[in-house]
């Protein structure tokens, strides 16, 4: 590896502004890394080197002319999850249904990245339409975990997380519906943040579950995540669910936390999110992280949130129901794939043949689950009841945050499992999001930060830190303080221990 690809995003941006390195050099270093390791990792679905170099050149021209940087991350390369539209680049959502589609508009997140001077390297692989926990459901093949190429990188945003862990990009964007930023972050040893629902625009984010989907930052350090968070967050009149409120001071919190203790802070350990079914190595790493928080001066309190035990089944009624509605637009009549289009077939037959060919097994499973849950005679029993559970989960969070400042848990019950290990067992696959779903259901902020390696298999474990809605900065403060202490105790950042990949020659 070159020194450039090992730098943090904050370090890269500072060196570009100081003229110690050019944005073009940085972009080329990462594109070279992508060329070298992509055959093994498969983190990307689309790479646009020419466009990335043009964007980098524009940043260098600004620096040479003495113009102010467009943002604190100007010139930093980034990998964009392929569920966000980008003008002039394909957006497939990991599905054959949208193969070859180039949207005529930018998602608000994409536009904000471009206006901030970030260099978008390409679009990353994902579970089809963001449905999955392993990135094995992509129609274009699975992404592999750089820590162990025989294991999954999490999902649905495994491509974004793997790109970070493989040093193909210092920053990435993911989306989180039930854990699709945090769970990949956990199993790849990276930082993944789900912002408060409504604080990052969903305009141009191809919808899976509209009341749950949320774009967020992925990075290798807490500060880098916070810097990216500030770029993409903020009110957007194009998104009817966007909250018109100031962006929480996440960068200030990350900087403050990195140089402070946690005295006076109350941290709640959720008793329902640990125990039976959790890998021993995960529990041991989590307990060590809690002990570290205590050493930093935090008061540790056990908190019970009984409705969290109902979050998983409720989620798998709400999310598939919204998926059934949102994916009805892929009907072969307006855009995307069309199969069997000839004079002998009716429109209904063309729709049926197209949806059969275009959707993968997991997407079909969730459409059928959701359609059933919304059907006449079952709506109140299933979808309606699940929404009542959602209210109970939010009340549990409200009660918990009345006692403590933040809540913590493992991010996911196990480390990365083997590719193919759970493909025939949907329930086991769904349990990967056991800890992340409650925050998604309530809409509050949550992040995952690496907290060590499991003694069982030597793979990364994630610590989840949950904050009240619009108090995202609390999580950043705790995460930054913990990151500083963790690195001091472990002799450096965890990500530096990822095995070197065999590169193409």
UniProtKB/TrEMBL annotation:
GO BP annotations listed: translation
An example GO CC term for this entry is:
glutamyl-tRNA(Gln) amidotransferase complex
Keyword Ribosomal protein present in the record's keywords: the answer is no
Query: Which SUPFAM superfamilies does the record match to this protein?
Result: Amidase signature (AS) enzymes (SSF75304)
Q: Which reaction is this enzyme known to catalyze?
A: L-glutamyl-tRNA(Gln) + L-glutamine + ATP + H2O = L-glutaminyl-tRNA(Gln) + L-glutamate + ADP + phosphate + H(+)
| Amidase domain residues | 25-474
The protein's superkingdom reads Bacteria
Cite the entry's keywords alphabetically: ATP-binding, Ligase, Nucleotide-binding, Protein biosynthesis, Transferase
Q: Which Pfam families match?
A: Amidase
Q: What's one GO MF term for it?
A: transferase activity
EC number(s) for this protein? Answer: 6.3.5.7
- Active site positions, chain numbering: 81 (charge relay system), 156 (charge relay system), 180 (acyl-ester intermediate)
Family per similarity comment: Belongs to the amidase family. GatA subfamily.
Among NCBIfam families, the record links this protein to: gatA (TIGR00132)
User: Subunit structure of this entry?
Assistant: Heterotrimer of A, B and C subunits.
Sum up the protein's function in the record's words: Allows the formation of correctly charged Gln-tRNA(Gln) through the transamidation of misacylated Glu-tRNA(Gln) in organisms which lack glutaminyl-tRNA synthetase. The reaction takes place in the presence of glutamine and ATP through an activated gamma-phospho-Glu-tRNA(Gln).
UniProt name for this protein: Glutamyl-tRNA(Gln) amidotransferase subunit A
């Amino acid at each position: 590896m070159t020194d450039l690809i090992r730098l943090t995003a904050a370090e890269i941006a500072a060196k570009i502004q100081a003229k110690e390195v050019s944005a073009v050099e940085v972009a080329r270093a990462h594109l070279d890394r992508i060329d070298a390791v992509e055959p093994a990792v498969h983190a990307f679905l689309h790479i646009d080197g020419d466009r990335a170099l043009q964007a980098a050149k524009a940043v260098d021209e600004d620096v040479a002319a003495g113009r102010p940087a467009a943002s604190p991350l100007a010139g930093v390369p980034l990998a964009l999850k392929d569920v966000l539209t980008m003008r002039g680049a394909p957006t497939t959502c990991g599905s054959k249904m949208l193969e070859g589609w180039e949207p005529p508009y930018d998602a608000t997140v994409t536009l904000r990245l471009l206006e901030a001077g970030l260099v978008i390297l390409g679009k990353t692989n994902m579970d089809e339409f963001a449905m999955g926990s392993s990135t094995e459901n992509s129609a274009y093949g699975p992404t592999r975990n750089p820590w162990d190429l025989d294991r999954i990188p999490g999902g649905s945003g495994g491509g974004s997380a793997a790109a970070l862990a493989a040093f193909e990009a210092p920053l990435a964007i993911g989306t989180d519906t039930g854990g699709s930023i945090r769970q990949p972050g956990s199993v790849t040893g990276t930082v993944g943040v789900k912002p408060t629902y409504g604080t990052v625009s969903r305009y141009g984010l191809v919808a899976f579950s509209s009341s749950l989907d949320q774009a967020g930052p992925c990075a290798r350090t807490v500060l880098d995540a916070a810097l990216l968070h500030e770029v993409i967050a903020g009110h957007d009149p194009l998104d009817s669910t966007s909250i018109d409120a100031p962006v929480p001071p996440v960068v200030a919190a990350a900087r403050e936390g990195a140089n402070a203790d946690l005295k006076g802070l109350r941290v709640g350990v959720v008793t329902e999110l640990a125990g039976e079914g959790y890998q021993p190595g995960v529990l041991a790493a989590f307990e060590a992280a809690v002990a570290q928080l205590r050493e930093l001066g935090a008061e540790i309190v056990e908190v019970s949130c009984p409705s969290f035990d109902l979050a998983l089944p409720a989620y798998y009624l709400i999310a598939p129901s919204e998926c059934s509605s949102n994916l009805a637009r892929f009907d072969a009549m307006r855009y995307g794939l069309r199969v069997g289009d000839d004079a002998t077939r009716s429109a209904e037959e063309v729709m049926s043949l197209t949806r059969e060919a275009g959707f993968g097994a997991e997407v079909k499973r969730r459409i059928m689950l959701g359609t059933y849950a919304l059907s006449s005679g079952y709506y109140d029993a299933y979808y309606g009841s699940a929404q009542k559970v959602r209210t109970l989960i939010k009340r549990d969070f409200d009660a918990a945050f009345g006692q403590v400042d933040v809540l913590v848990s493992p991010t996911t019950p196990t480390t990365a499992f083997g590719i193919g290990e759970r493909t025939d067992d949907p329930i086991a696959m769904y349990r990967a999001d056991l800890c992340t779903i409650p925050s998604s259901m309530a809409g509050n902020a949550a992040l995952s930060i690496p907290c060590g390696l499991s003694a069982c298999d030597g793979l990364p474990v994630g610590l989840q830190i949950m904050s009240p809605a619009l108090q995202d900065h609390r999580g950043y403060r705790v995460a930054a303080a913990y990151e500083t202490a963790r690195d001091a105790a472990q002799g450096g950042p965890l990500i530096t221990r990822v095995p070197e990949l065999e590169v193409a020659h």
